[in-house]
Amino acid sequence: MSLINSSRTDPNKILPLTYPWARRHYKDGVANNWTPDEIPMQDDIEQWKSDKALSDTERRLVKWNLGFFSTAESLTANNIVLAVYSHVTNPECRQYLLRQAYEEAVHTDTFIYCCDSLGLDPEEIYTMYNTIPSIREKDAYVVDLTRSVFDRNFTTEGDANVQKFVHDLIGYYVIMEGLFFYAGFAMMLALKRQHKMVGIGEQFEYIMRDESLHLAFGCDLINTIRRENPAVWTDAFKSEAVELIKKAVDLEKIYARDACPEGILGINASKFAEYVEYIADRRLERIELPKVYHTENPFPWMSQSVDLAKEKNFFETRVTEYQTGGSLEWD
């Protein structure tokens, strides 16, 4: 049997498991279950309404991140439900994809909750993917990278089409969820460290843990498909994948400078750019491609939310620190 193109796969017959890693990711996701309304926003509301609690730079940072994530989560949900799910017929992988789709719905609800709580203009926030060039360029890049799987006539039969499918999975999982979300995570958690917008920061911590699992599943999906179809993993294709990720890093750096042009308490756009390079190297290694940047992690404190320095353990073994509902404990 195989993940795709297996005539012997019955998508309704989940046992015996073929890919235990998919089941493990599903159970880890369930253990991290949460909803945004569990997290109080009163302090955030008071800070947002205050003339002195937040600088103009910090307000811009919050708006730019809500503007990107509010529509990016819908984009990722569409990729799962309308594209990836139809081409991956293995039942335990499909079970995880359904769980991921639910989590994307929770994330979408999170930004509704944040915008409503702060009294933001939804027309401003939810159209930033059109009105803010740095956000528009990121979204457009991912849409273009995942164009093949949205073609109604697309199939994964034959090496050329399998290669296109892996290409689009890299665009979706490695670039969208593994790169384009992480400068925003670092920005919002930097604010939280200063006891600013703590409610939103806590929600971003939960989202970051979800997205880390999404990335882990996506990389396992990519690695399994390419191992089952080794002819698609050519030197030319590997070089293309590296170039796609390098282009994504450039776009994320532009976004980081746009969202936080003046920095906050010694943390500036250059540091966020370094963090994107560090993350990119981790993503490249995860799908067995060579590092490009060799940049040190400028934000080791990010391990308070998800310990990226232990990415191998986090992605490849059971995540024992997860607890159900609103009782997560940070190391």
Could you describe the 3D structure shown?
With 331 residues, this protein is mainly alpha-helical. It has one domain (20-31, 38-316): Ribonucleotide Reductase, subunit A. It contains 13 helices and no strands. Helix 8 packs parallel to helix 11 (235-259). The chain starts with 19 loop residues before the first helix and ends in a 15-residue tail after the last helix.
Q: What is the fold named in CATH at topology level?
A: Ribonucleotide Reductase, subunit A
Alpha carbon gap, first and last residue? 40 Å
Largest sheet: none
* Count of alpha/pi helices: 13
Whole-number radius of gyration?
19 Å
Q: Any idea what the shape is?
A: globular
CATH architecture: Orthogonal Bundle
Q: What attributes characterize this protein structure?
A:
64% helix, globular, 13 helices, mainly alpha, 331 residues, Ribonucleotide Reductase, subunit A, disordered C terminus
List the helices and strands and how they pair.
Elements: H1 20-31, H2 42-49, H3 56-87, H4 91-118, H5 122-125, H6 128-131, H7 133-145, H8 159-177, H9 182-193, H10 198-228, H11 235-259, H12 269-286, H13 311-316
Helix pairs in contact: 1-4, 1-10, 3-4, 3-9, 4-10, 7-11, 8-10, 8-11, 9-10, 9-12, 11-12
Summarize the structure.
With 331 residues, this protein is an all-alpha fold.
